[in-house]
Design goal:
63% of the residues lie in helices and 10% in strands. The chain is mainly alpha-helical. It has a two-stranded parallel sheet with strand order 1-2.
Length: 84
């Protein structure tokens, strides 16, 4: 049984923490959740720290950095059903 985990903008902003959480979700150890508000906060942080020049660029980047759950689970399903 996986543990539900809500990731806030701070945990999603840092690449190492984000990658670990996504990996744990992929392995079924946790069930990772976030909201559009959390991604908006992450987008603002990307812009304010200078990692992205505009808020629009930051929002596009946030969506790519943190794939929606349906995409993550489709990738996991495809990986689990690939022939050896």
């Amino acid at each position: 049984m996986s543990i539900p985990v809500v990731a806030d903008a701070d945990t999603l902003f840092a690449a190492t923490t984000r990658a670990l959480l996504i990996y744990l979700d992929y392995e079924g150890l946790i069930k990772l959740h976030w909201s559009p508000l959390i991604l908006d906060e992450m987008s603002r942080a990307l812009m304010e720290t200078g990692r992205k020049k505009t808020l629009e660029d930051a929002k596009l980047s946030a969506v790519r950095i943190v794939p929606p759950p349906i995409v993550r689970h489709a990738i996991a399903w495809n990986h689990a059903h690939m022939p050896d």
